[in-house]
What does this fold into?
Amino acid sequence: MKKKFKCEIDCANCAAKVEEAVKKIDGVNDAKVNFMLQKFTLDADDERFDEILKEAVETGKKIEPDFSVEM
Amino acid sequence: MSPKLKSEMKKIAVALVIFFALMIVEKSGAAAPVMENRLINLILYLIPYLIVGYPVLRKAFLGIRNRQLFDESFLMTLASLGAFVTGQNEEAAAVMLFYQVGEWFQSYAVGRSRESITELMNIAPEFANLEHEDGSVETIDPDDVEEGNILVIRPGEKIPVDSVVISGESMINTAALTGESVPRSARPGTEVISGCINGEGLLRVRAQKDFEDSTVTKILEMVETASEKKSHTENFITRFARYYTPIVVCAALALAIIPSLITGKWLTWIYRACTFLVISCPCALVISVPLAFFGGIGAASKNGMLVKGSNYLELLDRLDTIVSDKTGTLTEGCFRVTEVIPAEGVDRMELLRCAAYAEGLSTHPIAVSIHEELERMDPEAAAKGIVPEDTDNVSGQGLISKVDGRTILVGNEKLLKSHSVPLTEIPTSGNEAATVCYVAELISEKESRFLGTIYISDKVKENALRFVPAMKRAGVRKIVMLTGDRSSVADAVAKELGIDETYSELLPQDKVARVEELLREVPEGKSLAFIGDGINDAPVLTRADIGIAMGSMGSDAAIEAADVVIMDDDLMRIPQVTKIAHGTLSISKENIVFALAVKILILILGALGIANMWAAVFADVGVAVLCILNSMRLITIKKTI
It folds into this structure.
């Protein structure tokens, strides 16, 4: 399942860092953090989607405290 | 301005006030005993420093913990802490303050350009009105619309999915998608595109596609992914920053240690090393170059030209050869009378009138073009609406009509020969491209008279004549036309438009081969673009460096195969998008050269001890602000229709 969210991210470099980290999470097929459009796209396994999403947001926050996702 | 930006602005303002107050007190010597105490001085300057600098310190710390050293926060933390160590408290606070001012300005600028672009991409429909079988109407999410659903579109509403009109009439505003200001009319049977805005009328439509596959979704996805496809310039900057920052940190370390060991003046050299660090911050480049590309893509989509990625702007900037399809791209694919040549003793208008009246009942494209010509040349005669009493269509030859009491033949050579019309002198014309249409009158069984010849050819698009010179001005070396049409027709069109090379009578697979040959002729570092209507030339569009699809609103195949999509049918959009590409590339080059030049200059001055930390702050923040302002010029490119 692929879903898009509005997100807050402060710089292009931070977006790239978060993107890379989220992609490494187990169950994530693909992830994108678009700095210019402030959009977070997550493509992950259907059954565990909500769980993975939560983990992705937490991972992002750990790297960039300013990262937040509007659910 | 977002709430976050506002609160940051307040913080910066408070810190600035405290900072300047402290500076005045210190410089005026009003509270000399207090300010001269090193510890008190340090604590006082730490107040504004921490107010604005806390998030930076935290980020630098997080960077160290996550082993992602060497970013801006790290540089700034190191430099300002170093300045505190050397006792330059005032300058340490200043570095952090102005760094944050610069950061704030960057966020503001990016936010502004983001707004101006998302605003124009504000085409996503928010709801759909679903009509149930019992006639009741329910408002639903466009995502829930299914193919075949009946939808009601009220005046002023957005069309939620690609659909076809069942009843009602209206004018549809397509400006958000095409940049075209003239609304299109919609009546039963018309296909309407999602994202367009309904005019005054109420429409009932049948959904032809799901929301997911509708034009509006495709376009939004395209624009979103566009900023992810990075250009070489952007990639260069990212890679550059990755190596540059560690190198600079090492250089600064060397600058702090080596001269100190020799001279023993540790504080002086640590201070100089800190100055060096502040200057070296790569933010100006890292933010302004992608911003220029983002602006370029935005400016293009504002005018109905969708560029699928920054890399295509870069390729457009280096355009060398343009290969174009003929029919439907350079020509309209419909016919026009180009010449009317009467036989001796026949009036030119008389010839045209005879032909037009004789063709009065025909809807053949050739007949239509003769009607149009009469309307243009002699509107009164056309308005009479004379139609033949009887028309006999002779397949593959033409027609014979009884009109106004005369018997008129309009057709090719065969038709006239079969009625033994004396065709002693067939006037030849230089225009080989034309279809020739002879006109004659049968006076009696035995007697006939040749009236003249009408030449008809495919109409060249109005803008095509301006297109070639405009592309040449934009720096294109060669313009090539490919067509499946007869060579006589192709050569004539090429001559009229000023095209450099023409290849005719090509089969679709020949086109790919020809483009590959042309690609080999393109000089190193230059690019080739192919322009087509996107319907049957998808393979060629993919093969070219840049595939440009024209007039493709609503054509999925084109949107998928092409790299640049021109939503309306205007050829002049291509020189326009090339101009935007030139603008984008020159702005990003200006930024790179300017930022690096200033930085290197001040780096040298800083290492020599001539430039102090204030100059360093300018080299960092000032340059970043100037570069961002330069990049923002593109976004403000006016909307031209």
Observations:
- The interface with chain B takes residues 8, 10-13, 16-17, 32, 34, 36-39, 62-63, 65 of chain A (CB under 8 Å).
- The CA atoms of residues 14 and 64 of chain A lie 7 Å apart.
- The helical segments of chain A are 12-23, 49-63.
- The radius of gyration of chain A is 11 Å.
